[in-house]
């Protein structure tokens, strides 16, 4: 199920702890006929579909809207069981050995904690989950699987868990805009912190940070993984219809938005340069596949910009709000080009 991402040392753990044993009886799927809302898939009603999804190499949504969806379905995923191949990729990158002490941020179903427990020993695994109901379900699933010695903490993962520190490894299964320092402080010198960085403009990817004697940590970005955001660092998504109106300024540009929005290297640099909270959204013209409008949205700041893409430049630019989003993105892109 984890495919080519599964390394030899993790094979026994995946064989011993199949993901479906950690999933709740009710999971959630996007229903296009219901306007893209998330609707429940119940194991007791459709066991075949439930098991097919549980056994697939795809993420499974296990909670929506923090456990309080509307009667007609959920809007946003708030907890999930990650795609098995992604789990395998992260565990391989963790470079963990039997006997090491591991802190996991974001327990979810408990499946990842069980895989870690099989590898390093259940008493060496501490996992933190902010949602009490999700944490309770994970404790029960871990106990049923024979990993009741795993410490499941209900609390704010941003604080880590100093009571069991220091840790040899910290693995984070939620996306963060900024790495909370307690994760670094609670890791031994030479230890590794593995965390998916998050940016509304473009996800930077999986950061592997090595902790140093002076309490700092440095590292590099790896796979472009995207996870549900840490609750304390959430950013409103917004949409063009809620923000757009009469522009404050208009102009033109020869710079095609695909150069700063669709290329990972450029988009990563631009997103980090302009800061989090700005996101892009492409609206395609129905009559032309390569034509449409690229939106820049900053819901919290009530700013927006749009670049209307036609057959050839110049492209029309419209901007409104306290911040000139297109100007900031253009300047960040130029900075990236100038850096070589």
Summarize the structure.
By secondary structure, the chain is α/β, with parallel strands linked by helices.
Throw out a few tags for this protein.
340 residues; alpha/beta; five-stranded antiparallel beta sheet
How would you describe what is shown here?
With 340 residues, the protein is α/β, with parallel strands linked by helices. The mean pLDDT is 92. The chain has ten helices and 16 strands. The two termini are 41 Å apart. It has helices spanning 11-16, 47-54, 84-94, 111-120, 132-144, 181-185, 240-243, 258-261, 264-274, 325-338, and strands spanning 26-31, 37-42, 60-64, 77-81, 102-105, 125-129, 151-154, 167-172, 187-197, 205-211, 217-221, 249-253, 279-285, 288-298, 303-309, 315-320. Helix 5 (132-144) links the parallel strand 6 and strand 7 (151-154). The protein has a seven-stranded mixed sheet with strand order 7-6-5-8-9-10-11. It has a five-stranded antiparallel sheet with strand order 12-16-15-14-13, with no helix packed on it. It is 25% helix and 29% strand.
Which oligomeric form is depicted? single chain
Rg is 22 Å
Estimated structural class: alpha/beta
Total number of β-strand segments? Answer: 16
Secondary-structure map:
Layout: H1 11-16, E1 26-31, E2 37-42, H2 47-54, E3 60-64, E4 77-81, H3 84-94, E5 102-105, H4 111-120, E6 125-129, H5 132-144, E7 151-154, E8 167-172, H6 181-185, E9 187-197, E10 205-211, E11 217-221, H7 240-243, E12 249-253, H8 258-261, H9 264-274, E13 279-285, E14 288-298, E15 303-309, E16 315-320, H10 325-338
Helix pairs in contact: 9-10
